[in-house]
C-alpha cells in the first residue's frame, strides 16, 4: 500500500496518508461502506448521479460538524441530480445519532470503520490515527473523478465554492 507524507497536517503535525492517490480523470473506486442501518453500501450504487464525496475525520468534531451541516444546506439548492455523501470512521450508530441531533436530512453519512476501504481507495487514510483526512471529491454521473480538494490541515474547512461550482457544472452537462 502506498504512503505519502508531508501533504496533510493534523493539529499542525505532519501525518502519513495511506492508499492510492486519486487524480482528476480517474475512475472512482467502488468501495463498500456501512450505512446507518448497519447494511453494506457499495459506492457504485450511487452512479448515475453527480456525487460530492466529503471525507471527514469525525462528525463529533466542530469542523466536521460545520462542514456536514453546510453541505446539507447546499444539497437542497443543488437538486435531485446531486447526492452528497459524508464518509468518516465514526461507527454507524454514532453517525445516525449525530444526524438525528443535527437535523441532517439531505446528506447521507457512511462509515468506513470496518474496512477502511474508502480511506485506502481514495488515498486519505491517516496512518497514525486511522481517521480520514479532510477531502472532497466531485464525481460525474459515469463515475469519473472531476474535482479533488485535499485540505492541507485536517482542522480546517474545505473551500466550498469550487466544489459546488463543479457539481453545478456537471449537472448542466
Kindly describe this structure:
The structure is a single chain. With 173 residues, the protein is of the alpha+beta class. It is 27% helix and 31% strand. It contains 4 helices and 11 strands; from the N terminus they run βββββαβαβαββββα. The chain has helices at 62-78, 92-102, 117-121, 160-172, and strands at residues 3-10, 13-18, 32-34, 40-42, 50-55, 82-88, 107-111, 125-126, 131-132, 135-139, 145-150. Strands 7-6-5-10-11 form a 5-stranded mixed β-sheet. The protein is globular and about 40 Å long. The mean pLDDT is 96.
Which terms would index this structure?
173 residues; alpha+beta; Glutaredoxin; five-stranded mixed β-sheet; 4 helices; 11 strands
Summarize the structure.
This protein is α+β, with helices and mostly antiparallel strands. It has helices at 62-78, 92-102, 117-121, 160-172; strands at residues 3-10, 13-18, 32-34, 40-42, 50-55, 82-88, 107-111, 125-126, 131-132, 135-139, 145-150.
CATH topology: Glutaredoxin
Largest sheet: 5 strands, mixed
Mean pLDDT: 96
Low-confidence spans: none
| Helix-strand topology string | EEEEEHEHEHEEEEH
Q: What's the β-strand tally?
A: 11
Proper CATH architecture: 3-Layer(aba) Sandwich
Could you estimate the helical fraction of the residues in percent? 25-40%
* Percent of sequence in beta strands: 25-35%
Strand and helix layout:
Layout: E1 3-10, E2 13-18, E3 32-34, E4 40-42, E5 50-55, H1 62-78, E6 82-88, H2 92-102, E7 107-111, H3 117-121, E8 125-126, E9 131-132, E10 135-139, E11 145-150, H4 160-172
Parallel strand pairs: 5-6, 6-7
Antiparallel strand pairs: 1-2, 2-8, 3-4, 5-10, 8-9, 10-11
Amino acid at each position: 500500500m502506498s504512503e505519502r507524507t508531508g501533504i496533510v497536517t493534523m493539529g499542525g503535525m505532519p501525518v502519513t496518508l495511506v492508499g492510492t492517490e486519486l487524480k482528476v480523470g480517474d475512475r472512482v473506486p467502488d468501495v463498500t461502506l456501512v450505512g446507518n442501518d448497519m447494511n453494506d453500501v457499495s459506492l457504485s450504487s450511487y452512479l448515475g448521479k453527480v456525487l460530492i464525496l466529503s471525507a471527514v475525520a469525525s462528525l463529533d468534531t466542530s469542523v466536521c460538524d460545520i462542514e456536514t451541516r453546510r453541505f446539507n444546506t447546499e444539497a437542497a439548492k443543488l437538486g435531485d441530480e446531486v447526492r452528497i455523501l459524508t464518509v468518516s470512521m465514526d461507527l454507524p450508530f454514532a453517525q445516525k445519532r449525530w444526524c438525528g441531533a443535527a437535523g441532517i436530512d439531505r446528506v447521507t453519512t457512511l462509515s468506513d470503520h470496518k474496512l477502511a476501504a474508502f480511506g485506502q481507495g481514495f488515498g486519505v487514510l491517516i496512518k497514525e490515527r486511522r481517521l480520514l483526512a479532510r477531502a472532497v471529491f466531485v464525481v460525474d454521473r459515469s463515475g469519473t473523478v472531476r474535482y479533488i480538494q485535499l485540505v492541507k490541515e485536517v482542522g480546517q474547512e474545505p473551500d466550498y465554492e469550487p466544489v459546488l461550482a463543479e457539481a453545478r457544472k456537471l449537472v448542466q452537462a
